[in-house]
Amino acid sequence: MAHPSLLGFQDAASPVMEELLQFHDHALVILFLISAFVLYIIVAMVTTKLTNKYILDSQEIEIIWTILPAIILISIALPSLRILYMMDEINNPHLTVKAVGHQWYWSYEYTDYENLEFDSYMIPTQDLAPGQFRLLETDHRMVVPFNSPIRVMVTADDVLHSWAVPSLGIKLDAVPGRLNQTAFVASRPGIFYGQCSEICGANHSFMPIVVEAVPLKHFENWSYLMIKDA
């Protein structure tokens, strides 16, 4: 999760987020090289009075500074398109969870089970246990098995919301009357935090998202207990 003085992204917890981090580093290297080159040209032009007559009118240089940016753009666009299509792929999910945004809480429905659904509210500050995080903890977590493809269907009951978990590389708008879907694979067990990322009213910053990835056996025990207590 995020922590004070964090300059980069959160640690990746899914293959898609790992790809996004690699693409970010790839694009950043290109950006640094271009910035350094432009800075060198500016400094050279300011500090020298010499002029090269071949630069003033050169067909070769014009060809180079037309083709080179195109090559750079292609080297950025191709990995970007690959990740974009990868994020849209949903292949044989093992579990489907429907997340519904409300003002100002989330409700979850495990559609593969007959009676497994619950509301997830933020825990007030005065009720937090030692070690829990303010504005991020919920009374019910979305529990999923790790190393399993999970499909998440997102919608809203009232206004626009956005279901976002940075560690998993997910950010999906919740639109009333529309069902959006995405998928993720939690590559390791853990607790991953997110928040509503669409301004949805007065308590917009008080509807956190907590995804807990556990081994399959623990998930089966949890689902059995949840259905039994319903």
Automatic annotation (TrEMBL):
Belongs to the cytochrome c oxidase subunit 2 family. Pfam families: COX2, COX2_TM. This is Cytochrome c oxidase subunit 2. Keywords: Copper, Electron transport, Magnesium, Membrane, Metal-binding, Mitochondrion, Mitochondrion inner membrane, Respiratory chain, Translocase, Transmembrane, Transmembrane helix, Transport. GO terms for biological process: ATP synthesis coupled electron transport. GO terms for molecular function: copper ion binding; cytochrome-c oxidase activity; oxidoreductase activity. It is a multi-pass membrane protein. It comes from Macropodus ocellatus. Residues 92-225 form the Cytochrome oxidase subunit II copper A binding domain. It catalyses: 4 Fe(II)-[cytochrome c] + O2 + 8 H(+)(in) = 4 Fe(III)-[cytochrome c] + 2 H2O + 4 H(+)(out). Component of the cytochrome c oxidase, the last enzyme in the mitochondrial electron transport chain which drives oxidative phosphorylation. The respiratory chain contains 3 multisubunit complexes succinate dehydrogenase (complex II, CII), ubiquinol-cytochrome c oxidoreductase (cytochrome b-c1 complex, complex III, CIII) and cytochrome c oxidase (complex IV, CIV), that cooperate to transfer electrons derived from NADH and succinate to molecular oxygen, creating an electrochemical gradient over the inner membrane that drives transmembrane transport and the ATP synthase. Binds a copper A center. It comes from the Eukaryota. The lineage of its organism: Eukaryota, Metazoa, Chordata, Craniata, Vertebrata. Its cofactor is Cu cation. It is found in: Mitochondrion inner membrane. Its main location: mitochondrion. GO terms for cellular component: mitochondrial inner membrane. Residues 1-91 form the Cytochrome oxidase subunit II transmembrane region profile domain. The chain crosses the membrane at residues 27-51, 63-85.
